[in-house]
Amino acid sequence: MRYPMRAILLAVCFCLGFGSPAARGEEAAAKKNTADEKKATVTEVAARNDAQQKAKAAVAKQAAAQQAAAAAKRAAVVKKLKAAAKKPRPKRPAAADAVAADVIFLQNGRAMRADQVRTQLRNLYKVELAYANRICDMSPQQREQVAVAAVESIDVFIEKLSKKKNRRARGGGLINGQATLSVDQRATVQAEIKKLVDTNLRPEQAAQYLDELTKREERFQQATVQFFVARIDEKLRLTEEQRTKLQKALEDNWRDQYGQTVEVLMSNPMYVPQVSSGSLMAILDDYQKDVWRTLQRIGPQHAGIFGRGRVNEIVDDFELPEAKNPKNQEKAKRLGGGGDVLIEGGVNVLIE
Question: Where does the record locate the signal sequence feature (predicted)?
Fold first, then answer.
């Protein structure tokens, strides 16, 4: 009896010290589950890090490819201009036979004679004059007087363009941070129309036109800022707070050149506007900054030589007479003298 009791006591002590087989199994299973969870966590973190590294490498590769393509395009343009400069020039006609068509403007790879530029310029004048007519309610006599003065103004405008020749146009822009020059004549046309209104209409009509012109520019500025914010938000996924800050920064640091970018951005969704880096970088997080550096940014550019207004529909057609003044015809003849003018990417190049 004493030996069985001792065996029972030993068994109880063994169970208390080492636990039952079922308990030991549960404990081992729990330890295994914990180890598996740790292993899965480590694997997940490693996979995430690997994915981020691959994404950064892909972004860097894409940026390098874009930069190489841009460099190749610039080199092709330079080569084209150099080849044109070396090409033998035909003998020029006598000054009496020279016509305005000898002056050539090259925009987006398409050559335009001066008479074609004149047609485009007349359309832009008609758009602005129709706008002024709706505001000022011109009388028939005033319309006729303004139309005649507008033809004179167009002749002077073409002559000024021809005189630029080897001078760079005013205004500038950025494509991926590279400086370029733009040829935005919209503001110049508006200034000429304002002169016509001031000279040929009553003071109260001129004041009303100036007031509406100011309001139009303010509305255009607001629309441009909202468009910029929407395009940047599309690429960077901004938060609501970031969008609000960006809109305020653009409004507080508005540049007239921003308005020259809208047409190109609307037809090229892969581009983003070139805005002040300091204002933008203060808003973005680190990941958004990395993405922004890979995007193709574009500054002041134009769909046509004379910028927005080129394809505007003229609601109230403001007819302009043809130039019949001998003085104007003599001006047109003089435009044929000198070298042809190439306007390529906003840069005037004289080809002798």
Answer: 1-25
273: β partners:
298
Strand partners, 272: 297
In 3D space, the residue among 232, 235, 273, 231 whose CA is nearest the CA of residue 255 turns out to be 273
C-alpha torsion angle, residues 205, 206, 210, 212 (rounded to 10): 20
- The string of pLDDT tens digits covering residues 276-291 is 888 899 999 999 999 9
The pLDDT of residue 28 is above 90: no
Could you tell me the residue ranges of all domains in the chain? Answer: 24-52, 101-351
Residue 3 to residues 6, 9, 14, 114, 308, Cα–Cα distance (Å):
5, 10, 16, 124, 110
Neighbours of 257 (CB within 10 A): 17
Rounded to the nearest 5 percent, the helix, strand and coil shares of the chain are 65, 10, 25
Tokens for 133, please give them.
């007519």
